Amino acid sequence: MNADLMSTIEGIQNQTSSDAILDIMYRAIGGYGFERFIVSGLPDPGIDVRPFVLLSGWDDEWYERYTGKGYVHLDPVARHCFSTTLPFDWSDAPYDAENDAPARRVMQEARDFGMDEGFCVPVHMEGGMQGVVSLVGKTDHLDEKDRLELHMLALYAHGRLRYLNSPQERLDGRRGITRREAEILKWAATGKTAAEIADITGLTTRTINQHCENAQKRMGTNNRLHTVVEAIRHKLITL
Amino acid sequence: MKLQIIRGLADRQSHDLLEENFRLRHRVFVDMEGWEALRRPDGRDVDDFDNADATHLLMTDTAGKLVGGSRITPLDRPNLLQTVFNGLVHGELPAHPSLGADWTRFYVRPDRREGRRRAPESAALFCAVMEYALSQGLSYITFVSSIYMLEHGTAVGWRITPLGPPVISEGKPTVAAWIEVSEAALGAVRRATGWVTPMLPDGPWPAEHLPDRGLPV
């Protein structure tokens, strides 16, 4: 097997942070002509996808739009993951273009964000949970060997990220959060902004943000919302 | 759940359990997974490697019912990896074959893997295989499976290295690979699955290396 791929696979498994895997993945998929990607679990209908996102290499605006508006439940590509075990081109995700207006809208908007073509790897986990690794870029140049290699790469990245995000690893392998961080996350969970929390606690806004970032690093989460959700889920804070 | 280790030719007590294992394997691998090459008129999946060299790790529930299993065969004796699946192996094994073993026929009883949960049977078997490998002084375990095993294995913190490029076999992406055996790998799979109870039976059980093999020269 080609040496680059072997070293990528080894690299992914050596990493202990999501950010480091992000870097490796950018480099690796670049070799196959892809620019951006996302690694995520797929929630049940109506559930917010954000806590399920393991790693996003999408641009921020599209990410906010896609996750904030619940597009994951309308997107034909995400939906198709539930009905196939094999990787597929986005353009092969079936949907009723005539009657399914929401799906059509998501596809149209994705095009407007320059995300009109891509390659999607569905991931079926134990117990019927569903995940996805989706790569943005043209696919017509890929041969079967490329597709199998990308498939394998995607599974390594998904598995490693899932391990790094598993609760036991997080709590045993890394420190929990400090009492101060917990206090700040509790305020954040009630919808307070950094400035408001600064007023309440007598700290500076900058310090509040720093505490949140530290908690985020320790917990391996992607943003403030994700940090709060995970802190609640693992009972690091109670409301 | 309890782990039963049956080695080589079963004694009378283990015989029934081993037979149940063969029948269940036929149901899982032939009837459900469609491995037609394994189909046998007697409904028992038994191949050339279910011989005196094989070790069967079988999981039973509190009622003594078989709920899942795996077969471990030595790599310095005839084995599945280096015969039937040899075409999938391109690179070298990571160490001398006497330091490795081939993990085959991993399954969980079909009625135990329904619903949205990680089957505890599967978690327990993952832990049992790693614990067993450590107890035997092995440094790696090989396997051939659907490519999805790479995800399931790395998700429990195992380090897995392909032995060759993945190929499409009977419509399914398939790969041969090896798993690093270590205390860290056992700790990781226990943490990730939450299955922290040691699985190997207490008391006297054959703790020596697999029979009649001597040391590598």
UniProtKB/TrEMBL annotation, chain B:
Transmembrane segments: none annotated. It catalyses: a fatty acyl-[ACP] + S-adenosyl-L-methionine = an N-acyl-L-homoserine lactone + S-methyl-5'-thioadenosine + holo-[ACP] + H(+). Keywords: Autoinducer synthesis, Quorum sensing, S-adenosyl-L-methionine, Transferase. The keyword Methyltransferase does not apply. Pfam families: Autoind_synth. InterPro entries: Acyl_CoA_acyltransferase, Autoind_synthase. Gene3D superfamilies: 3.40.630.30. Its EC number is 2.3.1.184. GO terms for biological process: quorum sensing; signal transduction. One of its GO terms (molecular function) is N-acyl homoserine lactone synthase activity. Belongs to the autoinducer synthase family. This is Acyl-homoserine-lactone synthase.
